[in-house]
Design brief:
heterodimer, A: about 110 residues, mainly beta, four-stranded antiparallel sheet, globular, B: about 110 residues, six-stranded mixed sheet, five-stranded antiparallel sheet
């Protein structure tokens, strides 16, 4: 099992550019989530999904879109990048009925 | 407003010391409290607590939850340099919400 994988590991964007952060898991987990981690602020939930075709907003959803067409994949789209979106992004998954999340290695994003 | 507060934010100790990390919370429809350890990259799971007063233990680490006073503590005894990390507290609440505290950065000096 590869667990939770994320690509790319690091990305530099210019303000206004769009991009997609990829996340995949091979554990057949129903729940998948995206977090951002900023210094001194812990992890904040951006969007989550409870299954294919179902997504919902978390604590800080503005500027991000998600979709869940398959159980395995949960991409995060930045529509028009802003410097405030400079952060480390973590994808996580968990099995339905369980609370323990498994995290990917993270994507470090720098928006200039 | 739902919130999770960890203290202290930073802690420096020497090998062999015992440390206590704190996590307090205010959320609606509490489900569980989780502790994670984050070294260089992804957080890794330590404990999940759902019931008050029942200690979870793994080696030198232990944790307990007080649902009346809305807090949890994570204890680490006989600290080692390998314990240096950010320790994150997270609270699951409502149907699918999860909120993390800001973390405690622990540095263990030899």
């Amino acid at each position: 099992n590869a667990g939770v994988t994320q690509t790319p590991k690091f990305q530099v964007l210019k303000t206004g550019q769009s991009m997609t952060l990829q996340c995949a898991q091979d554990m057949n987990h129903e729940y998948m989530s995206w977090y951002r981690q900023d210094p001194g602020m812990g992890l904040r939930l951006i969007h989550y999904s409870v299954g294919a075709g179902i997504t919902d907003q978390g604590e800080v959803p503005n500027g991000y879109n998600v979709s869940r067409s398959t159980t395995e994949d949960f991409p995060l789209r930045l529509l028009s990048a802003a410097p405030s979106q400079t952060s480390v992004y973590f994808c996580a998954s968990r099995r339905g009925g369980q609370e323990t999340q498994y995290f990917g290695p993270g994507t470090r994003l720098l928006v200039l | 407003e739902d919130k999770v507060v960890q203290s202290p934010l930073s802690l420096v100790v020497h090998e062999g010391d015992t440390v206590t990390l704190n996590c307090s919370y205010e959320v609606t429809n509490f489900r569980s409290l989780l502790w994670y350890k984050q070294e260089k990259k992804a957080p890794t799971f330590l404990f999940m607590l759902t019931s008050s007063g029942i200690e979870k233990k793994s080696g030198r680490l232990s944790s307990i939850l007080d649902k009346k006073e809305l807090f949890s503590i994570l204890n680490i005894t006989a600290t080692q340099t390998g314990d240096s990390a950010i320790y994150l507290c997270a609270v699951a609440y409502n149907n699918n919400d999860m909120r993390f505290g800001a973390g405690t950065r622990l540095t263990v000096k030899p």
